[in-house]
Every structure is written in C-alpha cells, then in structure tokens.
Amino acid sequence: MGPVLGIAIWRLKCALNWAMVYSGAAHRYEWRHYFGDSNAITPGETPEPVLKMIALAAGFRSGMRVLDLGCGRGTALAYWSMLYGIHPIGIERVRSVAHAARLLLQSIIATSEILTGDFFGIVWPEVDAVVVSTTCFSAQDLDQLMHRYRQLPTGTVVVQISNDVPMNELKCIWRGSHRFPWGNCPISVFRCV
Ligand SMILES: C[S@@+](CC[C@H](N)C(=O)[O-])C[C@H]1O[C@@H](n2cnc3c(N)ncnc32)[C@H](O)[C@@H]1O
Predict the structure, then answer these.
(1) Residues of the chain with pLDDT under 70
(2) How distant, in Å, are the alpha carbons of 16, 36, 103 from that of 27?
C-alpha cells in the first residue's frame, strides 16, 4: 500500500474509532475519574508529522515490536503499523481508552497487544523499541522510568517525547523538537548500550 492511501485509511479509521468510542458514556465517566472536569475529550495525541519523524529517526520497519507506554487510543501505533509494518504493543491505564485502542488496532493487525494498567506497575513485554509520547512526568516518575530503561536489553530503541530526561546510560541517536499546542517539546531517540 502506498503512503498516500495508507495515511488516508489511517485517518478514516481514527475518525470512525472516535465516533464509536469517544462519544460513549463509559468513556465520559472514566475520563472524569482520571482527568476531572477537564474540557478536553482526549489527551493530546502525537500529530502526524511527528509520527513520521519518529518512524524515520528510530528506523521503524516491518516486524519490529514497538511498545507505546500510555498508548491512548492507539493512533500512533496504528500509524506505524499501517505505514511501517511494526508489530504494535500498547499499555494504557484508562480502560475505555485501552478498549478504543484494541478496536482500532485489531482492524489493522489481529495480533496487536493492548494491556490495561499503569505502565509503572506492569512487566513490559520484550520489544525492539519503547515510545513515551506527550506524557508529562514528575521527577519521581522520571526516576522510575529511568530505572526501567536501565533494565532494557542492549540495542533497544527508546523514543522520548516528553519533559527532557538525563539519559547518560543511553546513546542519543537523534534529537529534534516540535511545537505542540502547549509549547515546544524535545523529541529524542536513544539506543540502550
Ligand atoms: C498524551 S496521551 C498520548 C497517546 C499516544 N501515546 C500518542 O502519542 O498519541 C498519554 C496517554 O498516556 C496514558 N498514561 C499516562 N500515564 C500512564 C501510566 N502511568 N500508565 C498507563 N497509561 C498512562 C494516559 O491515560 C493517556 O491516554
């Protein structure tokens, strides 16, 4: 499938997924539980140009197992699956959002894996790349994340789009930034050494 058709199908699938799941009462109930009275309907999703940037910088290719920590409704994983053939794995703590991710990804690849829970409390499956995108962390969360990165096998790619982190033990292979609605955000791609 060519990239133009791939992107068009991805956009259509995301729009249908939105209509099916995000307008539902279950989602609204859980949303309030997690995010209070925020007017936002979804947390920020990584935009298309950044998804492409990451895929190229991280060398996403067919069969690569990519874990999205806090995958939301799986739009990023769906994009990389459709256009780069990755095997998508996600962890999402909001149940209704994880359900949306399952629906979206199963329509692309039957063997996709979406786990529901807190990614700090779950054993991460074995993967080739770990992505953390557009989640802001406290200093304590960042420490926990660093601790988990240290345990990843050599060669694992780590993509971080978040508040910047000191990653001395990882080798930076690419660095960029993107202006999100809430401000400029660093994008880094590392390899575990
Ligand atoms: C900003 S969205 C990003 C979604 C997706 N990664 C993307 O790039 O489009 C962040 C998601 O991470 C989830 N999340 C944040 N912290 C989490 C945690 N500790 N465990 C599991 N999910 C988490 C939120 O519920 C939210 O759906």
Answers:
(1) 22-43, 134-135, 163-167
(2) 15, 13, 14
